[in-house]
Amino acid sequence: MTNIKPYNGTEPLHKLIKRAALFERKKQPNELCQTYLHVSRYYSEREIDTDKAFDYAEKASALAELLNDDFLRVDCLYAKAVVERVVGNVAYALTLLQNALQILHRLKKDEKVMREQAGIFYRIATLFFKLEELKQRMFYLRKAYKLFKLLNNEQGIGFCYIVAANYYFRNKDYERAIKYNLQSTEIFTRSNDRTLIAGNKNNLGNIYMELQQFDKAAENLKVAIEYFDSNQHGKSMALMNLGDCYMQQGMMQEAKRFLNKAYLISRKGKLKYVLYSVLELQAIWLLRQKRYKLLSEKQHEIIELKNEFFEKEKAKSQKELELRFELQEKDKEARMLKQRTAEMEAYTHKLEMINNELKTFAHVASHDLKEPLRGISSFVELMHRRTAGKLNDEEKEYLNYIRTNTQRMGNIIKDLLEYTQIEMGERSTNYVDVQEVVNHVSDILKAQPENTNVSIHAEKLPNVRANQTEVERLLLNLIANGIKYNKSDKPEVQISAKREDGFYHFMVSDNGIGIPKQHRKKVFEIFQRLHSRNEYSGTGIGLAISKKIVENHGGEIWVDANESGGSVFHFTLPA
Ligand code: ADP
What's the pLDDT tens digit per position in 241-259? Predict the structure, then answer.
């Protein structure tokens, strides 16, 4: 549990830093986080070093994340919001507080959560004070007030009265402003919170000044000065107001005295915003007293301070500029990416077109070559018949060479045409009885004289949703290859299937010569053959056609070896 007291804003910095070091040594991250928050608050309340205030809030944030503690997260967001407000980023401060509210919203609504919520509502209400959105300010203030009431939290109620008093003051409803001011003073008197009483007295002094009741104003401001104790910020403000009060009454010596005091404290404490107001009042004083030489010196000081502010503003706008540049760069990157995507799309489109053209070319060429080739082969056959017994051995060999090559060319053209047709033709799918297909293919193959001792076995093959002609072609290719690439006396091909995730997995296994591992991918490419034509005839297109058929159905095809060293062709088709 934490042993940290809530920070009351008056503890000196060196004590806080010392405590932080202690918690760091003792490895107490929770306490360290809270102390960092106090340090951050110290810096932002005094406006001496907002960068440090921010750094400490960040350090605390890191610890809150490490501890995964939502309450600490809320406190850190709060601390950051305070810093942002001090440097003038009111809208961002508001966002941070709204984030904090979101965190609290997720938590179970117990007393602690409500207390935090009330605190944040309150803080938002004070933020809108800067945004000049008075209506919203009252909206959040009422929310805070209701929760504080529910929690019986007097101090919170007192804070709400302060904000209400300010609201009416700005609306020039001084009567109500005084009423709420007194109500909150009453509360803080009960809790003996001197700084808060001092703040109220200072505000009351301002109200009376507006009402031109200078005696009452001075009376309250004096109490404020006394009650602010060591709070330099509050003290210098109250002193300045008192100086102003005297000046408004024409009591110039008193005015000078208090303005000087305010000047010294704000200068020493580097309270720039107060110092600026003090300087302006001093300048008015010098003008009224016709002390022109001193006035010009004072104005010089004002300009210097203004420049300092300006430098800060400049740094801020430099940061903004950098940010904008970063955004522009990101924008540029996004545009380039878009352009590249467009280029890629155009390139893909071009490739598709070329591919289609090639397919059409292969299709048309093979189709158109069929006719002249048929002409050549019929005349070669005619010549073969007419010249029977009239040719010498050499001439016979030449003619045979022409005959076999025209046949080969015919086969290639036929296969190529089929290959191109698979993709170009319209395909219809039906339930195909694969068992029946295998029986049919088996009949065709066994009818060939060289296949008399071949055996083809199939075990209860299923139905698949596919194109009948293509499935026939696929199985014909695979079974025929199993018989062709086979040196056994009794070539055997086994076809089986099993169901696997919405697909049927078929296997066509043979007792043939097998395919070496390194070639098992290559054989599916068009024109890829592992043997010379003298060894085994073929065009090298069959497996490319098979692959296309399977893939067009959304399946896969591959090959490996079986125990006998033969090949097993696997393929899947949708069930
Ligand atoms: P083709 O049989 O017309 O040469 P394929 O595309 O059907 O063309 O087959 C490509 C190559 O794959 C064949 O040349 C052959 O070397 C090899 N092959 C195909 N099936 C088998 C098989 N069952 N056993 C051994 N090798 C095979």
Answer: 999 999 999 999 999 999 9
